[in-house]
Amino acid sequence: MKSEKFDITGMTCASCQANVTRCVKKQPGVQDVNVSLLANQMNVTYDETKVGEGDIVNAVRDIGYGAEPAGRDAEPRGGFRREWEKREGRAEDERRRMKRRLIASAALLVPLMYLAMGSMMSWPLPAFLTGMENHLVAALTQFLLTLPILYLNRRFFESGFRALAKRAPNMDSLVAIGSGASVLYGVFALLRMSWALGHGDAGTVHQYAHSLYFESGAMVLTLVTVGKYLEARSKSKTSDALDKLVDLAPRTATVIRDGAELRIPTEQVVCGDILVIRPGERIPVDGTVTEGSGSVDQSAITGESIPAEKGPGDEVISATMNRNGSFRFRASRVGEDTTLAQIIRLVDDAGNSKAPVARLADKVSGVFVPAVIGVALVTLAVWLLAGKSFEFALNCAVSVLVISCPCALGLATPVAITVGTGKAAEYGILIKSAQALETLRSVDTVVLDKTGTITSGRPSVTDIVPVADGVTAQELLRAAASVEAGSEHPLAAAVAERAKAEGIVPGQAENFEAVAGRGVRAALDGRGYLAGNAEFLRENGIDPAPALPALERLAREGKTPLLLARDGALLGIIAAADTVRPDSASAVRALDGLGVRTVMLTGDNAVTAEAIRRQVGITEAVSGVLPADKAAHVRALQAQGRTVAMVGDGINDAPALVQADVGVAIGAGTDIAIDSADVVLMKSSLSDAVTAVRLGRAVLRNIHQDLFWAFFYNVLGIPLAAGVLYPAFGLLLSPMIGSAAMSLSSVCVVTNALRLRSFRETPSAAAVPAVSAAPESGRPAAVKIVGVEGMMCDHCRAHVQQALAAVPGVAEAKVDLEKKQAEVTLSGDVPDEALTDAVKAAGYTPAGVKKK
Hints:
The protein is an alpha+beta fold.
């Protein structure tokens, strides 16, 4: 199967969109067709062995529209910019032509309307246009003023009658028939006046002099053009987010070739080139820093507000801004492969894709225009049979034709989807399809992978447990950081990070030696140190028995211990674990506020899973889940009738992401997870999952509003135009009012969709009220304040909070770093000693417990 994009010209309404879709679907081997009225593009998935590109193009052209493969003249690298500029250029040219046509039509319409209404309104007119003897001159003048308006707006007739001939009528067909009927009746009246004047029949001349309908036909064409112009201007605003993304890509780059710096177009950069970046410059392609350093603002791509420090070995992303410093980097992904190009493609494809809710509008649009033509003919016949004049019946029939606009139906979904996906991109949320955006609205269960999603995905020190007498936690941490300085093990990085956070400067270790799978040995301040697991210490003649109770407790909590010994004697234990992300708890509370149930899947033991569940506030935790079983758990929830979103970051999450109704990948995760997902969170923040759900609900609410008013408008407008209220109330719409109302309906739909541009992301954690678990007995929850000394940073706060939350009987723990205290909400009877022991076990000093 091959997927290809085509540019389509000549579409003006939802019926055009439905006609193109229907004709291409009839081709053998075509599996899927997605036509975008907003972008004037079509995506087709087809079997190359059964149908060719030329067959698809010819099928579209046969029903009166233009078609050609998209982006054929785009360069292989940087083509996204050229294709976008080409598309925007075509749209801008069309708007300019429409504006010129509108101005010219209006300039001719003003004297035409003045002449047509002048005698009835007693306006001053030239003598040669007044009086019975000059009625024919006035009629000819109106006809001559109408002709150039017909010529200027001939596109309606060309498109409308061609589509009618191909038995695929569209909105242009309605306009062409309505305005054409008015003008033809005017020509008939002109001939009747000429005959009557030659036969001295003054009554007939006077009768037709005030029923020419030239101004109605010209007014319909002009007002429809006004609506189309306003609609085009409004639609152009829906692509603002994409415009901003495309503008982020620098047009030139500085590369090192043959030892010299060259300034070349970004499209000419190739993988392996060394590029130079100075302060204030945007990074043109993706790559890896080779030398130098800089502070890079990545907010335009990831949404992160704090610049990231970049040095040798760090990856840099295209379109991000270097604020300070200078560096060189090696290009790894260029042109269509850069992060920016992929984001633009994803957002553009999502805006052009079709949501399931749009299928209803498509089905209606496919039969709408033929049905309206039928209603107009019935209206004409009914009023003639009722004894009304032909002029009256024609007025009603033309009004039915021009007021019936399927444009609003066709625009309701794509405009909202385009604005919604563009808004999501501004917050670093990539939504790959309209269907994903619609499904987000219905999500009632969010399944969360633990490692890398709820937690940071890398270990941090959680416990510092001295065992030897006289050894403090700070001494133990300094010794471990010094000995592990030469190790590349993740535990060594966690120890180094904790020491740095507490302001501890490691010593210079000597004779460093790493033993694979066991630990390390080194000399520090003239003494021999060992750091590793219990088996490593036993192999070196050190008995870990004094630490066994603490080791068992840490094992139950799912933490990894590092034992430290000096000169053959055990000093203590430093434990590390994957810590909860700072925003995870607030994100879960926000999901709970939206009525969404949260389920955590983890391979950890039940004790660790329960501790994380309580700390974060998750509804349900499922422990001991093997990677292969995650998809089965998602299926089980779906079998209960739930709409499930799966949030994950690893290779083992890919099957569950595909199984879920909506797969959400953390942006820092693996490429496989991201490829398997429907939504990608570039900031790797769980709070963005909440924003995605809220945005999905906002977009679908907007679409439903638009569809309701589009249907309601036609249900109300068509009978009114047909004259059903005339017998009882004397209410009758003229074609001019009908065409104005039709034009405004499309503008209103687009304007309503543009309100989504004011959408704001999920409030900060501080703005989301905490939800405290009530004790099972129903008694008011008891709250205790625990003083904590030794906390230096947010990591320390997280460690204390996690330790207290793991104490049985603790419903919630909130730690205040500035006040050096923890507020603990209890769901049962918890002794003060249990709370202080938890603080000690985390490596900090308790400073008393009191009731709040």
